[in-house]
Amino acid sequence: MAEQKNTWAHRVEKCHFLRWIDTLLRGAAQVMFQDSAWCGLFFLLGIGWGAWEEGIPEVALGAVLGLFVGTLAAHILGAPSEDIRKGLHGYNGILVGCALPTFFGANTVCWVLVVAGSFFSTVIMLAVSRFLRTWKVSAMTGPFVFTTWFILLASYNFARFKMTGLPHPSFPIQPAEAAAVLPGIEVLARAVLKGVSQVFLIGNEVTGLLFLVGLACSSLPASIFAWCGSAVAIATAAFLGADERAVAEGLYQFSAVLTAIGLGSAFYSPNWRVILYALLGTVFTVIAQGALNVALSPLGIPTLTFPFVIAAWLFLLPNLQFMPESHRTTSPSA
Amino acid sequence: MAEQKNTWAHRVEKCHFLRWIDTLLRGAAQVMFQDSAWCGLFFLLGIGWGAWEEGIPEVALGAVLGLFVGTLAAHILGAPSEDIRKGLHGYNGILVGCALPTFFGANTVCWVLVVAGSFFSTVIMLAVSRFLRTWKVSAMTGPFVFTTWFILLASYNFARFKMTGLPHPSFPIQPAEAAAVLPGIEVLARAVLKGVSQVFLIGNEVTGLLFLVGLACSSLPASIFAWCGSAVAIATAAFLGADERAVAEGLYQFSAVLTAIGLGSAFYSPNWRVILYALLGTVFTVIAQGALNVALSPLGIPTLTFPFVIAAWLFLLPNLQFMPESHRTTSPSA
Amino acid sequence: MAEQKNTWAHRVEKCHFLRWIDTLLRGAAQVMFQDSAWCGLFFLLGIGWGAWEEGIPEVALGAVLGLFVGTLAAHILGAPSEDIRKGLHGYNGILVGCALPTFFGANTVCWVLVVAGSFFSTVIMLAVSRFLRTWKVSAMTGPFVFTTWFILLASYNFARFKMTGLPHPSFPIQPAEAAAVLPGIEVLARAVLKGVSQVFLIGNEVTGLLFLVGLACSSLPASIFAWCGSAVAIATAAFLGADERAVAEGLYQFSAVLTAIGLGSAFYSPNWRVILYALLGTVFTVIAQGALNVALSPLGIPTLTFPFVIAAWLFLLPNLQFMPESHRTTSPSA
User: Fold this and answer.
1) How far is Cα of residue B160 from the mean position of the Cα atoms in its chain?
2) Are the Cβ atoms of B155 and A174 closer than 8 angstroms?
3) What confidence score (pLDDT) does residue B178 get?
4) Three-class secondary structure of residue A104 per DSSP
5) Structural contact between residues B120 and B147, judged by C-beta atoms closer than 8 angstroms
6) Chain A residues with CB-CB distance to C178 below 8 A
7) SS3 A121
């Protein structure tokens, strides 16, 4: 890995264009806290495959557009260049670019909103990062969530937004008794992978697999935590009685995947105490997913990755020290 | 009081078990800002009496369980031991333990949630405390409220939660004209005491009386402010035209009781200016109670003590100095 | 201007009563970030004219009462006198005083609430200002919004509030296809001026003109940004397909007006980069207006100026430096 990176690093330093490509790939990878172009490449492959398979090519297009505009915005606004170089101003844009064409028909207004939204997401990234710097906590995917919520909410208010994928606003109603029959191993294995792929709003097993491979290129523990986070989320959701179809689609897992990677391997180095803390955080994320599903149901918008964001902020703010000072990793996202 | 405490303090220092008991009792007392085992004992007696009288013994069991798990969690997570010793990591857990069996049928999922929720409440306590330390403001009962809201909201989303005591989600509707007839003295006296008892989600006059006695053991002004806070809340609610039955049950008073004790005697030493400020805060709390009743009605969850939390934060953040520096008390909760 | 001010300044320093008047006028002007008694005088004239024309004289009375009580509260609570002198504790009160009689029938409870609300708005101003001082960001009209939201929400809960101007709580519904016909120049010109006047909750062209004149007395760029902000908001709202009648009444413009003045001339000195940033912020404010219209529709309360508040906080928090340190203006509101 180190040698591969050196050759690439050489070429990248020489060529302005390649440096941009490298930065954009890292931006994709930062959605799951990785500062690695290889990881980002697999993520983009996964998005491309999933978008093609599910018949939503505009999601792949939106992803690339959002990634580019978000990063460009950081240059224009004068963000610190070392942050830009790590991809920290691309990961919110790529998610905005995946989300908007998922919920809107791909008309002109939609593409204008992808561009504007990715730009806004970088402004909000700078705002949230400065706010949270006081406690040395990262913005997580908060800027993506806030930007996209604003635009999704606004769609109910403006006639030119073509709404296609939003739930109907309604009062929360408890589902009937949960099914007692356990699903088979294959269904579970698919649900775990779809849980990983849903981080980018795509429900596709191969995409999930490509994401895990990409993570492993950058950090094997990250890949393992991602898989385990999805599995733990399925177990928790099943114990509490979640809707089976939603679990099969990965909708209770994607935020938990991010919490597991974040607490388990990104903001702390893994050891036994950290693993238990990440487990606790992952369980909390599933409850938060349920709570936010309900809290947002009268507004007719999805939670996006906010269950992860709130879990990460609450579990990182205590600033617990699980190991001697010298062994700690510093947080990968500013 | 001081001598009693000395003998007790002696025994407590010698015996690990007694120190735990003493810590737990202080945890109960910290719900109303008291660092006193005697006060906590009366609180537990009050909860026990109320739970027995009202036919809800699981609330008393939940209280003890939540108190224990919350405090244990602080040990496990490595919270500062002087904070734990003052009971600052028990008061959110005891409230979570009172609340969940009040709103849920006491099945297995409920008890698992009491344990998990009390644990989460300590994580959130550490998070909120670190966040607010920047302004030297305490977490109040915020961690209890956030934890319980998450779990109550999630109950609409998962089939295995047995909902028994939650209101139906609905749009807010203004009540018809308020009754012009004033209730009698006895009804008012009961309403004042029930307002105090509702701090622990119990509507029982004797419980309210035991709480006032407990407060008086620790601080006579605290006890007086509690009683007066409840009375002021009744007057304010009646002036604004609140539902009589809700007032008779203490539902407009419990947050106001906490605001009155907090502003009047816990975070400031009482003098005339402080009394007027506490009065203002108490009136604000009743308006906030009405506002939050409405804001939460589409979600079908109760306000819990959030009207107090928001009032305390807003009225303490200005950091007003009502007396010379040397005379001020330091805040009792971290 | 400078000489005028000197004579006035002389008299003002000699006479306690005139100093109060001068402070109150500055309080009115601070709603649009101006520290100028002349500007405030035109604002009060505009409010008076609009209230008279629209047949709502109680709004003018409420404005003066709220302005006075908010400023008085700051004296009583011991706020820094240089802040009071600049009008920083009057601008939230005047808005509370405009808002409550707009939404409530002018009965006794309403006037009590204007007095109490203006007082609370100063407490909340001190709280929010201290909170935000950490990042050197101003409270904006946040204290007005929070105070008024609390009171408006509470009105659904208490029988003695006489609700007259609040929308019905309902689920958000997307409007039908937007009209393709462009309105004429006159209609647009009126809509721009009404957008300015709606900052004080009044829909009247002459009032808008008086506000622009008042702004020009204090700062010509502020006046230009106000007009342009309203125009940009109309264009944005029309592009997105907003309800024509709401645009004609100025309801998509008033927050954008504040964002444009704030980002363009108050917190930054105007240059090309600042103008583009203010334009971006203004467009964002219109989307936020739509989003908040939707988010608040189940609660039946209006957004007030919160779209501006959230835009200003998000766009000022990044603390972007558009010019050399020595040329920057310091923020006018604490």
Assistant:
1) 28
2) yes
3) 66
4) strand
5) yes
6) 158-160
7) helix
* C-alpha–C-alpha distance, residues B248 and B260, integer Å: 19
Q: Is the pLDDT of residue B217 over 80?
A: yes
pLDDT at A84 over 80: yes
Token couple for B44:
């537990």
Across the interface, whether the CB atoms of B161 and A287 are under 8 A apart is answered: no
User: Quick check: is A217 in a domain?
Assistant: yes
- C-chain CB neighbours of A163 within 8 Å are 174
In a domain, C224, yes or no: yes
Of C159, C163, C299, the CB nearest to B295: C299
Question: pLDDT tens for residues B107-146?
Answer: 999 999 999 999 999 999 999 999 999 999 999 999 999 9
Over residues B151-200, the pLDDT tens digits come to 999 999 999 988 898 999 999 998 877 666 677 899 999 999 999 999 99
Please indicate, yes or no, if residue C2 is contained in any of the structural domains: no
CA dihedral (B58, B60, B61, B64) positive or negative: positive
Domain total in chain A = 1
Q: Which of A24-38, A201-215, B313-327, C126-140 has the lowest mean pLDDT?
A: B313-327
pLDDT tens per residue across span A162-177: 889 899 999 999 887 7
For the entire predicted model, the pTM comes to 0.94
How far is Cα C321 from Cα B310, in angstroms, rounded to an integer? 35
Contact A26, A37 (CB under 8 A): yes
The pLDDT assigned to C326 comes to 45
**What values do phi and psi take at A198, rounded to 5?**
-70, -10
Residue bearing tokens 């622990």: B200
Q: How far apart are CA A123 and CA B254, in angstroms?
A: 42
- pLDDT score of B329: 46
Cα A243 from Cα B157, distance rounded (Å) = 8
Q: In terms of residue numbers, what domain contains B125?
A: 13-327
Smallest CA–CA separation between C157 and chain B, in Å? 5
What sign results for the dihedral spanned by CA atoms B128, A237, B61, B229?
A: positive
Q: What is the average pLDDT across B293-320? A: 96
Probe site for chain A from B125, B133, B158, B163 (most A CB atoms < 10 A):
B158
Altogether, the residues listed in chain C come to a count of 334
Residue B332 lies in a domain: no
The 10 Å Cβ neighbour count of residue C244 is: 17
Cβ contacts of B292 within 8 Å, gap of 6 or more: B303, B306, B307, B310, C153
Lowest mean pLDDT: which of B286-300, C177-191, C317-331? C317-331
- End-to-end CA distance of chain C, in Å? 24
What is the rounded CA–CA span in Å between residue A222 and residue A228? 10
The DSSP bridge partners found for residue A104 are: A163
Looking up residue C142, the CATH number of its domain turns out to be 1.10.3430.10
A330 alpha carbon, distance to own chain's centre: 20
In chain A, positions 62-91, which contact chain C (CB-CB < 8 Å)? 77-78
CB-count burial class (<10 Å; 0-12, 13-18, 19+) for A325:
exposed
Contact (CB<8Å) C77/B320: yes
CA atoms within 13 A on the CB side of B301: 24
ipTM for the predicted complex comes to 0.93
Closest-CA residue to B65 (of B17, B99, B18): B99
What pLDDT is attached to residue A11?
83
Q: Which amino acid is at C133?
A: R
Q: Say what the pLDDT of residue B21 is.
A: 96
In the predicted model, is pLDDT for residue A95 greater than 60? yes
